[in-house]
Amino acid sequence: MQTETVIVQTLGxxxxxxxxxxxxxxxxxxSRMAVWKHIDHLRALxxxxxxxPRRGYRLLTRPDRPLPTExxxxxxTSRFGRELVYQDRVDSTNRLASAxxxxxxxEGLTVVADAQDAGRGRLDRKWHSPPGTNLYLSVVLRxxxxxxxxxxxxxxxxxxxxxxxxxxxxxxxxxxxxPNDLWLDGRKLGGILCEMRSELDRVHHAIVGIGINVNxxxxxxxxxxxxxxxxxxxxxxxPVSRPLLLAEILRRFEEVYDSWQRDGLKPLLPELxxxxxxxxxxxRVHDLAGDLTGTAVGLTPTGALLLEQPDGSRRxxxxxxxxIRPA
Length: 327
Ligand code: BT5
Prior knowledge:
Blueprint: H1 3-13, H2 21-28, H3 32-45, E1 48-52, E2 56-61, H4 68-71, E3 84-90, H5 93-102, E4 110-116, E5 135-141, H6 152-168, E6 175-177, E7 181-184, E8 187-198, E9 203-212, H7 232-236, H8 242-263, H9 269-275, E10 282-287, E11 290-299, E12 305-308, E13 314-317, E14 321-324
Parallel strand pairs: 3-4
Antiparallel strand pairs: 1-2, 4-5, 5-9, 6-7, 7-8, 8-9, 10-11, 10-14, 11-12, 12-13
Bound molecules: biotinyl-5-AMP.
Biotinyl-5-AMP (BT5) binds at residues 92-94, 116, 119-123, 125-128, 136-138, 180-181, 188, 191-193, 209-211, 213, 225, 229.
């Protein structure tokens, strides 16, 4: 664990009590001056730490941010999130993760930000990413699969996020709206953006970005999202810990990713189908070729949406935006 994580852990374990500076120095094998510098930095990150002469340090409050010092002790993964890059503000975690992947970042490196100034969705759309409330993260992956297999990773990721939300919020019915939306009470709770750099036969890296509305309040949405977006907090009536959710997402994501890389989407399909909000619904799909209508009847092992058309024929849709039509 990083030094500052150990300091926070040590102070946290003492509850409302003091921990002497000498004990921290001994524990970490550091000088008083070095410990003081770390305490100072932790304060700058938002930890309220009292220093009392002859008694030592006491942790008064922790910041409500997805900081590495909060996430590291919760991690149970072997690779995902073990290298964690945190920024208070970034243009886009996907953009930063991609730049780090270009310079050699290893698989599992995770970029997390408290806010994004240019959070992005698919097709140059924007992802509303205000500070202090939600989760924005991107994971660097180097899957040993053919480039054509990578789009199905967005569905596998969605499943991982649903499993994680299921652990923390077991009473919420969050669904998956093909291809990359997390859906709750008829509104968008989150989205997944899967980007990659590849050659014809080889993937250099894939960046999987996950945005989840965790604690945003109804009144905080901009006008264009007020009727279509929702947060976990809105549905639960109470806030959810971002560090806990993030650690759980990384755990479930590593588990699902390993299975996906080994065996593809097929073994995950039954669970994906149970979460799919489109199954059996009349839909309109908009893709590059135009509009298609029909009934969504399932997913294929490659991650395509299976559409039953009005003439009874079935068609696989590889990419696109889906709207549910009134029955
Ligand atoms: C997505 O795109 O749903 C993928 C979103 C991925 C965001 C994450 S955040 C971390 C990482 N870094 C990034 O820069 N991006 C990823 P799409 O299906 O194209 O949906 C975009 C549309 O969703 C927008 O055009 C809005 O209509 C709507 N939208 C934007 N922000 C939203 C929000 N916070 N909650 C719900 N809907 C939103």
